Amino acid sequence: MINFIEISKKFKTDFWSKSFYALNGVAFKVSEGEITGFLGANGAGKTTLIKILMGFIFATSGSIEFDEKLGKNRREIFSKIGLLPERPYFYPYLTGREFVYYLGSLNDVKKSDLEERLIYWSKRMGIVDALDRKLKTYSKGMLQRLGLITTIIHEPKLVILDEPLSGLDPIGRKELKDAIVEINKKGSTVFFSSHIVPDVEEICKNVVFLEKGKLLYNGPIDDIIEKNVKPSYIIKYFNGTEVVRVEVQNKDKEKLIQDLLVDSNNKILTVEKFKVSLEEIFYKIRT
Amino acid sequence: MLTKLLIICRYTFVEIYKSKVLINVFLVGLALLLICYVAYSFTYAVPERIALDVGLGMLSLSSVGLAIFFGVGLISKEIENRTIYMILSRPISRRIFFLGRILGMIGILILNISILSTLTILTYVVLGGVLNKLIFIAIIFSIIESIIILLIAVLFSLITNITLSTIYTIVIFISGHALTDTLTNRFATSNVFFNSLLKTGSYIFPNLSKLNLKDYVLYNQMLPIPTLAWMFSYGVLYSIFLIVIIVVIFDRKNLD
Q1: pTM of this structure
Q2: Structural domain tally of chain B?
Q3: Complex ipTM above 0.90?
């Protein structure tokens, strides 16, 4: 759906300072129809790449190709994209409804469709009663939910979310994650930036990992876990007095089980493949 | 594209209107009435002229004030607060966004000037003044002047920060009114370097005294139509010149 080709971006903090690379030769593809997580620590270059993708800032070198299904020119492509920027500020004196109508009408959505979708999503997000209130009275979580509604009100084919869950409480995070999964099930490709690994692991199939402006990994989450997981098992058994936990290599597993079963005092409780979280893997990759 | 321009214009107008900007109009209107009452009580000659003088002066200052303080944040705050990202991620070009915001703000300036000029004219008529065409032309010129100041504020806000933009715009406003008079100053005419410096400045900076018809209005001096047309054209062409510069800069600006 999107092809990033060797994107580099140089910045200068001030006139006299030496320039530095915020992005350095980043190249990857975002697959159609999936939720792709875009991971990286704060300052890794995620937002910079999204800004380049949207044409808000210009890359020092490299280019971006959009799938022809999105359109041939900027106007066609951008009418099929929905973006929720990081920590956006909303016009405080407009009501929630006015704000959604404003942005929806810029995407040529009919008023009747706007109303229908607004009611559905605002009910789904639990902010339907606040739609006619001024945005300055909204909490952060409500603004984030409204932001997501404006992002998807025109039913875009590609949804780009920059840190949509930051600053939300656990319930808010769960609701937004569920909504993201629903958006994806309805046919949108989701490109979802976050610095919180478990969030990405929970809802994404693919992941792109950026570190200090360089691409460290791009591919399915299952693959990176499989590659980094130890080929070992955890066996828990009760030996008559206490529960014992043993980690064994795959090749030694059968033998240990047989040995344990010889002694009638032993009772095997669990045999589990050694698991490691995506977060642990990324800490490992970074170092 | 026109529809989208009008949508941005409409919501910019609504957003600024709802920010209680008209409190400014109410306070200026109240001050205007108060000054007229004081002037009426203390002058024996021409209170209606004082009302007109004060009214035209206040409406010009208030609209220029609005143009500066809203102008410096009209685009730059959108960038700073990332609201612009939610709009430019839609099929909207940067220039349409800019023109929509400017038109919305011009709508606010026209509303402000319309209310204050209505109040000024009513006071003037109640105090015995006689209406003439030049009063209305002076009001239109005030609108053009505030549009130029608005565009200058937006231009500076794209290349520097809000505080400096405000200061620079105020300096341009004062220079724009002082240039013509300074050029006729004996020191300026006798000093070659200073004279050429001022002349160069007069080509670059807006000559706002060209748009100030207050003296002609107060002394009932009608200006020839070609002169008025030239002044009007100058204001419009200078505004277009500023719009072109802003569009060129805004199209190339990194919005971060």
Answers
A1: 0.86
A2: 1
A3: no
